[in-house]
Amino acid sequence: MAQFFKEKPTRSVAKSQKLSLSIQSLDHLAQGVAQHQGKVVFVDGALPGENVQTQLTENKKQFAKAKLLRIDTPSEQRIAPACPHYQRCGGCNLQHLDHQQQAAHKRQALKALFSKLAQLTPAQQEALPEIDEILSAPWGYRRKARLSSWYDRQQKQFTLGFRGRESHKVVGIDACPVLAPELSGLIKPVAACLARLQSVATIGHVELIATAQLPMVVIRVTQSLSAKDEAKLIELAERQNCAMVLEHADEQWQYLRGERPSYQLQTTAAPLSLRFNPGNFIQVNAGVNQHMVARAVEWLAVSPTDKVLDLFCGMGNFSLAIAAGGAEVTGVEGVANLVELAKANADAAGLANATFYCSDLNGDLTREPWFGKIDKLLLDPSRAGAFEALAHLGKLSPERVVYVSCNPVSLARDSQQLFKLGYQLTQLTALDMFPQTHHIEAMALFVRHK
């Protein structure tokens, strides 16, 4: 027997409902927060104190999301976005708020997340430290960015830019004000050159990296380019005085011009040069990274007799700076090629007191050769946090723990384990790593009660 189904009209009507809302606050994703009939409604692009007209895009039992249609009463804090692509590009979502106000919002959001997720006792809530910050320049701060590309075979048109807001469509751009000026200036000539290649349809993403040597253009290709296409790219690189690299499958790098990049890290002992491969993770905000590493070393209060463990160490961003002060440092990372880079960087710097291991930090750490009593611990995990690694904290028994986080939600959650083991949160800093965006990064110092 045939069965016929009709979509429930109440759902689509409710979803497309238009609402007049008063925005009360911003959440940690920088969405405006309003109340409607006892339900929380999130409105991207709205600011506290604004009266806005919206249309529902998602209607759940506990909350709803709405699209901003019109601002009837704008906030005094609202400013005109500096970038002409802001309304369409998905790269930034806070240019309509003054930079100082962005920083204030992120401090408040960080404190609210700790109060909500860290399960603080009244005494711990009272003892929560005042949140300070490491500020960035609001523009021109980004030393690495990945651009998306799209080739329309019917129109024979090539587009280079960023994905649109809540869209897979590539928004073409000529410049980007959050990029380092030497990178932003490359976008237009790189796009024009790629559009003229015979193999334009095989071009994937494009990475721009500001290195200690030359600005670098890294082009992902799905097949080898012809000699003529390679010559065009070399000519572009010479004209723009940049390095040019092709990324083939399995992270195979073909250097058409230039050499493997590095970045500089100034420490109290000596400047360090950290080499990396184009596809490796590096902190994109060089200025904030410099201050962040210095503050981590300060908070750890490292002496030459200390044993320091750096988990999720990458290529040694923190490990080498700590080792430069004379302490015995062990860095552990789950990605093998990053461990090899960390070893090479330590050797190049003459830091024999830094050793590195490749280990699964989500597994049983007690069987690892490096596991044992330590004096200080530094954690710099991915967005998922360090929950599994912290399960072994009691056996490691460090005096101090510095936790660097790219996700304050997991930082607040993981703090519960530290509190249960008798650690006190004594310092909390908001890192202005990504101005003009909602992203909040933070670092925290936990000290063990004696």
From TrEMBL:
Residues 12-70 form the TRAM domain. Keywords: 4Fe-4S, Iron, Iron-sulfur, Metal-binding, Methyltransferase, rRNA processing, S-adenosyl-L-methionine, Transferase. The active site is at C406. It catalyses: uridine(1939) in 23S rRNA + S-adenosyl-L-methionine = 5-methyluridine(1939) in 23S rRNA + S-adenosyl-L-homocysteine + H(+). [4Fe-4S] cluster binds at C83, C89, C92, C176. The keyword 4Fe-4S applies. GO terms for molecular function: methyltransferase activity. Gene3D superfamilies: 2.40.50.1070, Nucleic acid-binding proteins (2.40.50.140), Vaccinia Virus protein VP39 (3.40.50.150). GO terms for biological process: methylation. S-adenosyl-L-methionine binds at Q283, F312, N317, E333, D360, D380. Its EC number is 2.1.1.190. Signal peptide: none annotated. NCBIfam families: PRK13168.1, rumA. Catalyzes the formation of 5-methyl-uridine at position 1939 (m5U1939) in 23S rRNA. PANTHER family: 23S RRNA (URACIL(1939)-C(5))-METHYLTRANSFERASE RLMD, RNA M5U METHYLTRANSFERASE. Belongs to the class I-like SAM-binding methyltransferase superfamily. RNA M5U methyltransferase family. RlmD subfamily. This is 23S rRNA (uracil(1939)-C(5))-methyltransferase RlmD. The gene is rlmD.
